[in-house]
Amino acid sequence: MTRQVHLNAMFHTAGEHLVGWRHPSSPADPSLDLAYATRLVQRAEAARFDALFLADLTGIPDSKPSVLERVAVTNDSFEPITLLAALAAVTSRIGLVATASSSYNEPYTVARAFASLDHISGGRAGWNLVTSLNDSEARNFGYDTHLLHADRYRRAEEFYDVVEGLWDSFDDDAFVHDAASGRYFDPERIHRLDHRGERFRVAGPLNVPRPPQGRPVIAQAGASEPGRALAARIGEIVFIAGGGLEGSREQYADLKARAAALGRDPDGLLVLPALSPIVAPTRAEAEDRFAELEALLDPVVALGDLEYWLGGVDLTRYDLDGPLPELPPSNKSVSTAERIYTEARASGLSIRQFAKASSATNDRYTIGTPTDIADHIEEWSTTGAADGFNVVFAQLPDTLDAFADLVIPELQRRGLFRTEYEGTTLREHLGLARPASRWAA
Ligand SMILES: Cc1cc2nc3c(=O)[nH]c(=O)nc-3n(C[C@H](O)[C@H](O)[C@H](O)COP(=O)(O)O)c2cc1C
User: Fold this and answer.
1) For the purposes of burial, counting CB atoms within 10 Å of the CB of 148, is it exposed (0-12), middle (13-18) or buried (19 or more)?
2) What is the whole-number distance in angstroms between the Cα of residue 99 and the centre of ligand 1?
3) Integer angstrom CA distances of residue 116 from 54, 121, 123, 346, 355
4) What is the pTM of this model?
5) Per residue in 49-80, pLDDT tens?
6) Nearest by Cα to 128 from 215, 218, 7
7) Domains assigned to the chain
8) 134, 155, 239: residue to mutate for ligand 1 pocket, most atoms within 8 A of CB
9) What whole-number distance in Å separates Cα of residue 215 and Cα of residue 165?
């Protein structure tokens, strides 16, 4: 039987393209529109996506004001766990994955919020653990600059262990709710964590019962050396980006090998490369749709986005019609900056051209017919590059509607994607076992 792919839908209501909100068929004020978010998530659920995934920052990014004033998403989106709790009430199957930073949070707060979301949604919560990107995020949490890359991954490792331990505070059957005897929970089945580590001292127990999934699903996207080490240890969904088919195969093999070396079942770590589809019945129509979107992209925004990912450099100091110079390493996303330099060199494009070509979702687009997109999904998922895809929806509602109407049926026809949800929890959709509590033995 054909192995089915997992599809994660990544979108904010403004769309993931920086200027998707300007498209004539998109609402220009989408960010705080709960009814619109409901329509979109219900569309994704009707298409049988495994999960909706919301990226997040803990502040407005440190892009230039001339860029910030032109983009949506990063300026006025809902706090993701809050939004997913609301969306849990209007959906019944789709997984709900929110981002939360281990650099600018406390483990107790994160453990409590995700355990709550897992209960509210009946076992559909996932946590995308990130270490954050911007100095501007750090400045909201008592620091002048962003924690150094190595430090923040060390913090992330310990942060995760505390959260995991807190989720195991109560045994699964600890709450007896016995009104007759007056006993609410069994004190034998509650465990204090008493964590005393390098960075955290957390007593526990958590004041939320064990989550329905045992633990919410863990998503991660580390790509640097410490990032991959963390992803291999704790990631159950691992997002990868860039590098094309060959680069994805390398990351896929590396992550699976690292997981196996740590004693994990490699099938318990699902690798999802990004796919940003622009699909239409014919290639010419798909190209037209892409051109419409690109026409909205002001060169100021394209250049500013490139400057942002390179760590806030000012590229206007260089000849914009010349090649991208190699600049000092960034403390933002080390691996993303490295990838950008490699891609810029290989492209032979000038700074101006490369900014436009690489902008907006940090991922290249896949433009074509439903057959083209399904071929891409089939090739990548059958040749060791992907267990599924993080489908990034650039402009809404069109790119989601087109994917649901045109690509999903083609994948189902090929036996590559489910026609019905078989389970009710995110773990069940992903084929991931429910972890036993550390106290179970
Ligand atoms: C699909 C995807 C989504 C991401 N979402 C976020 C996010 O919401 N917030 C964030 O701070 N970083 C996000 N990142 C960045 C990663 O957490 C990570 O920093 C990046 O992939 C580079 O890896 P490195 O930190 O190991 O260099 C995302 C990365 C990818 C590929």
Assistant:
1) exposed
2) 10
3) 17, 9, 10, 47, 41
4) 0.95
5) 999 999 999 999 998 888 999 988 778 889 99
6) 218
7) 6-287+363-430 (3.20.20.30), 298-359 (no CATH)
8) 239
9) 10
